[in-house]
Amino acid sequence: MIFVHAFIVGGIICVIGQILLDVAKLTPAHTMSTLVVVGAIMDGLGLYEPLIDFAGAGASVPITSFGNALVHGAVTEAGQSGWIGILTGIFQVTSAGISSAIIFSFLAALLFRPKG
Question: Where are the domains of the chain?
Fold first, then answer.
């Protein structure tokens, strides 16, 4: 049943993003930023972790999870290290994903030539 929950929740997140693109006429960058902020707000309100528990990868894979990770890491580290923990928590939680994105983008740029 977890697969069905993941499919439905992930699909709803994608539908919301598509509606923002089509109806609200937002650019892809604005849509992505909006979804990250929504994920951050949901985590701040304590709503995103129950969603992850319910939907698994359906909630932890989409871009909204990045906002969740930023806030979750900042709040956790702020509780342990004080104000400086806000910054270190953000970098600690997201560093692996950002580092891998940079490395794989660099490798793709080396392997493939753009047309034009």
Answer: 2-111
